[in-house]
Amino acid sequence: MLHQTPERWLKEKEISNSRWRIKLIQEAVPWLEKLSVSGVWRQLRRLGIRLKGGRGYIHSPDPQYEEKLAAVNACVVRAAKSNGREVALYEDECSFYRQPEVGADYCQVGSATQPLARMSHRSNTVAREAAVINAQNAAVLHRQAAKLTLSQMLKFYREICQRYPDAERIFLIEDNWPHHFHPELLAHLEEQETAFALKVPFNWKTEKIEERCAKIRAKESDHLLPIQIVPLPTYAPWTNPTEKMWKKLRQDYLKMHQKADLWNELKQGVGNYLDQFKEASTELLRYIGLSPDSPSRARKTDSMAAAELAGPSP
Length: 314
Hints:
Distance between the termini: 44 Å
Strand order of the largest sheet: 3-2-1-4-5
Number of domains: 2
Largest sheet: 5 strands, mixed
Shape: globular
Structural class: alpha/beta
Radius of gyration: 25 Å
């Protein structure tokens, strides 16, 4: 009953409430009718039912949610067994701003003092970071820019390949930001083998773009990047561990920073923060949930084992 709204459960009474109240619960449950409001409250507590704060919730609407996660896990397992010939990387982008994010900080007790997020009188300038995290050791590679244009993303992809020169194939596990699947970007990559549609806006499917892609492939035919795009489910940021690294960046560096009037220093500081993870990091691996002993990794064990049994599947 409590999993439905009073409006639906008591529709014959024309109730318009979206949330339950003690009086409404009493109306809905006949054996509670003779009790007082406080009696109903005590009875609910004995049954383990209490008023609790809600939280925002959304689940991916992707009909291929499970299949995509299985494909991701298969690529991670395959890369782990390849002795460096294949690499699995989680990729994502984030924005950060001149103005500091407000957060809690330690200070003296009392109302006279309070931690201050010191703002700038200047406009709230934004910068972008793109980063990849190695699924095996959490080594990070990142690129910072004012805007992550197609040319910037291509430069980043080339830097990824330079970082892993011995890799015959790089599985790039990404969300569904359309720029990831732009035809002119994919034209620089080896032929894609994913079984899932890489959806792009309709106006990117023009003859001019197709002609440019053909020219790129003809010119780069001997130098195509060994990258395979592995799409994550749509609207499912919890499936990308890189999101947790952005959370760590915000918690450790961007909240309450004192560099609102020192934009270049702030950008350099963000770069330096990410650089500390450029080599394998056990700390970050556990924080983002990819360490073998982390709780979230433990929950993935069964699905990864199933993916291994199913065999390779990019």
